[in-house]
Amino acid sequence: MLEDREIVAKLLDPATQDVAFRELISEYKRPLYSHIRSIVIDHDDADDVLQNTFVKVFQHVKGFKGESRLFSWVYRIATNEALTFIRQKKRKTGIGDEASHERTFQNLKADTYFDGDEIQTKLLEAVEKLPDKQKLVFRMKYFEELKYEEMSEILGTSVGALKASYHHAVKKIEDYVTRERN
């Protein structure tokens, strides 16, 4: 696999730009889709956000300074695009957080691409009720199995703060699942 600086150089060179961008899409499409889908939930929304992400990457690759890994930079763009999409969707619909969480969860259960069993459904319901920051950290750590250091680069947050957010998220999920069982 090519080093980040080689990939960026190819993306910036008009002679190799198209091929390099197709390679970048091929490399990142699946993990980025999963990451975005875990945030926006809906398949069609995830496809839209993924497309917007790649457009932003293409437009802003000149600004990549190499201070973080290319992976982290692209994931940060994807995360920001997904969070912006959610905020805009909430604003357009005019619904509050609680109603938004409920609608998102109902859409997930109705989604033909979701094949979770009862336990997975309960877990996702509990995750959906978390505050946005904890929800994002939990999804990245639990579902995507990212290391805290990677998450720190992507989110621009300290490892300690991420560990605390994850710990609080796990505790809230455990409490929710325990309450629902009783």
Automatic annotation (TrEMBL):
Domain RNA polymerase sigma-70 region: from-to ranges: 24-91
Annotated RNA polymerase sigma factor 70 region 4 type domain residues: 122-173
GO biological process terms on file: DNA-templated transcription initiation
The GO terms this record gives for MF are: DNA binding; sigma factor activity
Q: Which Pfam families match?
A: Sigma70_r2, Sigma70_r4_2
Q: Which InterPro entries match?
A: RNA_pol_sigma-70-like, RNA_pol_sigma-70_dom, RNA_pol_sigma70_r2, RNA_pol_sigma70_r4_t2, RNA_pol_sigma_r2, RNA_pol_sigma_r3/r4-like, WH-like_DNA-bd_sf
Its keywords, alphabetically, are: Sigma factor, Transcription, Transcription regulation
Which family does the record claim for this protein? Belongs to the sigma-70 factor family. ECF subfamily.
What NCBIfam families does this protein map onto? sigma70-ECF (TIGR02937)
Please identify the protein, giving its name as recorded: Sigma-70 family RNA polymerase sigma factor
